[in-house]
Amino acid sequence: MFDNKNKPKGLKRVYLATLNSTRAFKWLLDNEAAFRQELMLLACSIALTCLFNITFKEQLILIISILFIIFTEVLNTAIEAIVDRIGLEIHPLSGLAKDLGSAAVLISILICSGVWVIILL
Q: DSSP 3-state assignment of 6?
């Protein structure tokens, strides 16, 4: 049982948080096709930015914009997990929560696309 009054502190907290994050990334890799696709996009974009005649700062901005998509995907997956934990029955609010998470990913993709267009044109 989780003890809210006796939380780990200091380096132990950092260590345990790192273990939790590592477990989450492994789960995402094993279970989320969108996450794997976005990691491939990140790898390709890192290589691709080296081919353009742009500054290092612009390269970082392009790469960070891809990381923003991945960040949003992780939050979307968390929303989906919470909704599924509450119940698997079809409910309008459950569908809305999942749709809003999906919309957030779409917005992050649009922002990323805009950043790439602005920097490369």
A: coil
Of the candidates 107, 45, 114, 18, which has an alpha carbon nearest to the alpha carbon of residue 71? 107
At 88 the three-state DSSP class reads coil
64, 65, 77: which is closest to 36 by C-alpha? Answer: 77
pTM for the model: 0.90
The confidence band for 5, taking pLDDT boundaries of 50, 70 and 90, is: confident
What is the DSSP-derived secondary structure letter of residue 4?
T
Q: Which amino acid is at 116?
A: W
Annotate 68-115 with DSSP letters as a single string: HHHHHHHHHHHHHHHHHHH-SS--HHHHHHHHHHHHHHHHHHHHHHHH
Catalytic residues: 73
